[in-house]
Amino acid sequence: MWSARTLRRVMVTGSNLHLHHHRHHHLSAGIIGAPFSKGQPRDGVDRGPDAIRAAGLLLKLQQQGCAVKDYGNLEFEDVFEDAPVGRVKRARAVGGANQRLSEAVRAVKRDGHTSVMLGGDHSLAIGSIHGHAAAVGELGVVWVDAHADINTPLTTPTGNIHGQPMSYLLRELQSKIPVLPNFSWIKACVSAKDVVYIGLRDVDPEEHFILKTLGVKMFSMSQVDQLGVAKVMEETCDYLSAKVKKPIHLSYDIDAIDPSVTPATGTPVVGGLTYREGVYITEHLCQTGLLSAVDLVEVNPLRGHGEDGVTSTVDTAVALLLGCFGRLREGNHSSNYRLPEP
Ligand SMILES: [Mn+2]
Questions:
Q1: pLDDT tens digits for 127-180?
Q2: Which portions of the chain are predicted below pLDDT 50?
Q3: Catalytic-role residue among 194, 202, 253, 258
Q4: How far, in Å, is the centroid of ligand 1 from the Cα of 146?
Q5: 3-state DSSP call for residue 79?
Q6: Which of 40, 4, 97, 101 lies closest to 255, judged by CA?
Q7: Cα of 147 to ligand 1 centre, how many Å?
């Protein structure tokens, strides 16, 4: 498989026809809907998966030559007694839902697809990344988000688990994680050196301490401004593939994009990625050939000040996913297309 660097060389030497053929040949998406909202307090984010499907995701993927299997929406058990554990809210529901999601992602990977998890809130990254790692081994994680989502159960200012998923996944933080109900199945499966953050602009002091102490690679919005998104992506992929080329897990929070474009989300933060920067990230990761699972989370059709804001948010989510599966803004065509003869 080609690295981004090799890819550019291939394209310069003019054999990109072969590349496009190769790239489309084996792309297939296994879609899991995860209508889950209990990692945060707002209603509506559980409607994300169906809103993204209703915007035509499956047909558009098929039209660009991607095989698609929709595994449907997961059903989560109701949890009636879910009192806070310390600061942490709804641990039992979040733990149970993520255990189910982990098994579903594992099954999608076993079937040979690139996993696409439609959230739901970002607490779902726990199960998605856990299941992905269980299926394929060591991962590189690209976390695109306004927030770091790396609070521990003891540092969280809100108690909402969608602000904590990374802390359960990182091996280096396990001595800081207390026992929580329905969390015992989780095995920390990611090393801090295998994570890259992009788009950060709202990081709690405790989270900043963790990121700096563990030496986690990050490109905040300041670095995106400084370097430009192309350089950020080149450095991201060089960093993750410096030693071994590992499968990449992209965990994309729609709130990474500027709320002028994607307002229908629970915790919008001004000063985010443009639509073009957001799409470029997916195009670049697709070209590495290493993208193995994608989360698209925090689309909330009940937020965003009216229909236009929701449409813009959902359409952007679809564009990001199409970029993950080979859509090029220059246009695409099927490798067996022939011009009609007069
Ligand atoms: Mn997030």
A1: 999 999 999 999 999 999 999 999 999 999 999 999 999 999 999 999 999 999
A2: 1-24
A3: 253
A4: 7
A5: coil
A6: 40
A7: 6
281 within 8 A of 144, measured Cβ to Cβ: yes
Q: Other C-beta atoms within 10 Å of 184: how many?
A: 10
Which residues are paired to 195 by β-bridges?
A: 141
In the residue annotation, 284 being an active-site residue is answered as: no
Contacts by 80-87, CB closer than 8 A, 24 or more apart = 82/38, 84/159, 85/153, 85/178, 85/180, 85/181, 86/153, 86/154, 86/178, 87/153, 87/154, 87/156, 87/159
Q: Which ranges constitute the DSSP H helices of the chain?
A: 4-12, 16-25, 48-54, 57-63, 91-110, 125-136, 165-169, 205-214, 221-227, 229-240, 275-287, 307-324
The tokens describing 43, both together, are: 């209603």
Report the candidate in 251, 277, 256, 262 with the shortest Cα–Cα distance to residue 314: 262
Dist CA 331 CA 310 (whole Å): 26
Catalytic residue among 82, 113, 121, 122: 122
Known catalytic membership, residue 255: yes
For 56, residues 6+ apart whose C-beta sits below 8 A from its C-beta are 318
